[in-house]
Amino acid sequence: GNSVTQMEGPVTLSEEAFLTINCTYTATGYPSLFWYVQYPGEGLQLLLKATKADDKGSNKGFEATYRKETTSFHLEKGSVQVSDSAVYFCASCTSGTYKYIFGTGTRLKVLA
Amino acid sequence: EAGVTQFPSHSVIEKGQTVTLRCDPISGHDNLYWYRRVMGKEIKFLLHFVKESKQDESGMPNNRFLAERTGGTYSTLKVQPAELEDSGVYFCASSQDLQGFGAFFGQGTRLTVV
Questions:
Q1: Residues of A with CB below 8 A from B108's CB?
Q2: pLDDT for A64-79, tens place per residue?
Q3: Distance (Å, rounded) from C-alpha B45 to C-alpha A1?
Q4: Per-residue pLDDT tens digits for A20-64
Q5: B22: exposed, middle or buried (C-beta count within 10 Å: 0-12, 13-18, 19+)?
Q6: Which residues on chain B place their C-beta less than 8 Å from a C-beta of chain A?
Q7: Which of A51, A86, A99, B110 is a good FRET partner for A34, with 20 to 30 A between their CA atoms?
């Protein structure tokens, strides 16, 4: 069945460090891929998305590229801030369906 | 514009009791979804409404869970009787169409069964 695997956390970084959170997927068909973020005390927010191979989603300095050949959608940010501390979820949704398949979430903690 | 709103934000109940979670979707969104995250694991799909109709409830864990969406507006998810393994965060989401723009999620209800 379809699945999403993302790196275990927690990830602890110093401010201005480079961030990578790995995400790989398995799917029948061609899914859309998403990164959602949950800040403390808040709901899940859509961070970025990509709907087809080689698309790059970007928002708030975060980027992820849909890599069909490696079935990956790694999240990157060049310089993290304390305010980026949150839980990040990678998710897929196959075309023609409505069910999101989520990864387990990766907690990011950024230290000043 | 108001987002997806869930009530309560936290609930602590004893095993065997009943709890009802509520979700108010974004106005005009026909599609409403319930998801659950248990014990820090992945967020899993529970069910999907289109207006007042259940389109897919394949993710509902058992018959102790009952979801309704009266008049196609807000939705409730009742757990009766609650068991310890029901503890987790219950998310509601809504969308205008099935995909393409990403569903909008609420802040979740953290349910703790003791």
A1: 43-44
A2: 999 999 999 999 999 9
A3: 14
A4: 999 999 988 789 999 999 998 888 889 999 999 999 999 999 999
A5: middle
A6: 3-4, 6, 31, 33, 35, 37, 40-45, 48, 55-56, 59, 91, 93, 95, 98-100, 102-108
A7: B110
